[in-house]
Structure formats: structure tokens, C-alpha cells
Amino acid sequence: MPQETDAEKIARLEHEIEQLKQEIERLRRALEEALRAAKRQAAPFSRRSPKANPQKPGRKAGACYGRKGHRAVPPTVDQTLEAELPPKCPHCGGAITENDVFDQYQTEIPEPRVERIRFRVHLGCCQQCGRPVQGRHPRQTSDASGAAASQLGPRAVALATQLNKGLGLPYGKTSVVLKQAFGLEVTPGGVCQAIARAGRKAEPTYQGLIEQVRNSPSVTPDETGWKVGGRLWWLWVFAASEVTVYSIQPGRGFQQATVVLPADYAGGLPRDGWSVYRRFEQALHQTCLAHLLRRCREMIEVCGPAAARFPETVKGILQEALELRNRRDEGTIGEHDLALACGRLEARLDRALDSSYRSAANARLAKHLQNERDAVFTFLYCAGLDATNWRAEQAIRPAVVARKVWGGNRTPRGAHTQEILVSLLATCRQQHHSAQTVLIGLLCSPEPHKLDLTAADLPPPRLPAIRADF
After folding, report:
1. Residue 462 has what pLDDT?
2. Structural domain boundaries of the chain?
């Protein structure tokens, strides 16, 4: 090989310097964009500049309009009003002749009215044992008397619970909604106490949900930061196909995870790469492919052409795995061909992980994939197992919104009420039950009891006419 001259060496080095300068400038711009994104205000929800030629908003015209929809005619009509013709033409003052009549429908909220109820509670005693007996009406939520004798009704408490725990409204705004919409005067502290009472009534149901999660064939866990008394706690979510359970714990370790999920859990466990989940040694692990694909895309954006080959390879393998899953579920590939395709994908990933990488980002990704190697393709061998932790991500999103609005809970007791009620509301949504009806039934029950929210028809609340105080 001929030795290069000084001029050729200088030219080569200058070319390399110019390439390095361009690479540095590209990385600098990417770093600035990342820093701006981290500090960007949440209000506009805008990641980048608007498009120069955005698509026209609204539906497409003509045959591309799509499925046309409109509000259906109500099945029943409560009131019929006549829209009479005016006595004369509003434009010229001439006489008017009626030609036809057509129907128009309006679905309206009735005028709110606060219902104030007095219960005349009868007291007595047993003639045989002498113990006191107190009457109870099915619409009562408590047996209290004296200073606690005036309370909110079950419908009001159920609505306040949904506004605060379901929609994330603070106690102050919840009291404003009750006042403006229904004329119901209640302080934020009163709302807090009423919701706490609902949490106590739902405690056995919450424990039942935990048991159902522990017995579920597949559970998807996740966690996010949560404040309790201004200190950092963690909100855990365990989402199964039928129930969802939240748990607010002071830590993020294995000890806190086993509060809901037992250490010997042997079902499917789709989860992210948090190392704590690997300690469930008997579970059937599936690492979240969405997290891996997102990580590969971000690396490809900031890496040079040479360093981007490894994340591009991993991205292609994972996408092919998802396509293979779709073909299996659609029934377009046989078991033998599926096994061969899975083996080829695993061999490709192993070859990619056998290499050594100079890039620190590639080395970190390779190390992470080596740790998660046995959990990458589990979903291909177990039909019905999710390839991502989407179920937990969707379940944790409302809690993140509530955290942004009012920050968390002030006390551990309030955190316990939070985890109970949000679990109940989330499971009601999964089971297509009316949370209002479920909460009213629990509030009107004389004693807290476990309610099976996965039952097709929920049993009626147990409301005896009288209750003996033992």
C-alpha cells in the first residue's frame, strides 16, 4: 500500500475534521431540542413548530366523508311543546298560512333541585335481652345522631367521589360544581369527609379486587411518583383484563410491589424494564416492546449513521415480531412456520447482541437487551399475552393528570382512600357498571361488605329495616 503524502494526509484530516464538526453541530441541535422539550410548559401540548401546510380540519367532502352520525331520536318523550306560527309575517307583516308541521327533539338536563330528607329514626330495646335496637331506612347512609345527624345523601357523595377521584377535580372545585349545578351547599372539608366515608364503605370491595388481581392469569404493573404530605411516594397500578388495582406506597421496591402482587405470582407479567419486576421469578415475563421501540427511535434520531445501525437492527426485529404476532392471531400462519419464524428472529437478535459496540448508548441498549433477553419474545409463544404494558400505561394516565392538578394526598389515610376509590372506579369502567349505582349501594349498606364487581349482574345492596347494636 503506497504511503500517503503530507498533502494527502492533511486533506484527509481536514475532511475528517469537517465531518466531526457537522456531527457536533447536529448533536448540539438535538441536545438543545431535548432540553427545551424538558422545560416546555404543558399548556400548549405542542412538541414542535406547526406544519407549513397542515391538513384541512374537519371531515373530507364527498364520498370520502365517512360514516355520517347524528343524535338519535330519544326513545321516550317527557314533554311536548308547540312552536306556534307568529300572527303575521315578521318580514312584511302579511297573513300567514300554515302548510306543515315537523318534529324537533331536545334532550335537556332537568332543573336541579336539592332534596332535603328527614329520617325519623325510631329507637327501642329488645324485651328479651334488653339490647338497644335502632330503625334504619334503606336510603340512610349512617346511623349517626347528634352533631353528625345532618349528612350528604348517597347520590351527592357518589357524584362528589366521581368528580374528585374519577375526573381529578380538587375538593374546592368539587364543592363549586355541586353548588352551581345543584344548589347544594357543602364545604371542601365536608366533601373530603364524605368521600372518606365512601372509602371506608368500599374497603372490603377493594380487598376483593386485590384477591382477583392475585388470581388473574396476566397482570400488567407500572408505577409513577405520587406525593403524600409533600413527600415522594409511589402510586402503583396492577391492571388485569377484568380488574384494576391501585396502591400508594412509600417506596418503589420489591417489598412495595408484593403488597398487591404475591412474590410467588406465576402468571403472565407484561412490564417495562424496571429491575424490581424481574424478582417475580415464577412469573412469565414479557418486557414492553413499545418502550424498546421508542428507545430505538430516539437513538436513531441522535446517533450517526454508523452508530444507528444497531438500534435500526433491533427496531426491525421487534417490528417483525409484532407482525408475526398479528399473523398468528389472524390464523394466516401455521404452528410449524410460526416456530421457524420465531427461531430466526431469536437468532438475529442473538447475533446482534454478540457484537461489541463503541458507542456508549449502543452498549447500554445491548446490556439492557441481554438482561431482558428471555422476556423479549414471550408473547409469540403465549397467545393472549400482551407484547407491551399498554394496559398499565392507560390505567396510570388519569392518576398522572390528577397529580398535575392537585399534587397528591395530604395524609396516608387520604392516600388509602384514594387507592380504594380509584380502583373501584377503574374496575367499574372495565366491567361497564355504573359507578354511581355501585357507590350508592355501598353507601346505603349498614355495614361495609365485599361487592363482586366482575359479576354480570351486581347483587342488590343488603339493606335490612332494623339493625341491632351489639
Report:
1. 43
2. 125-203+432-468, 289-381
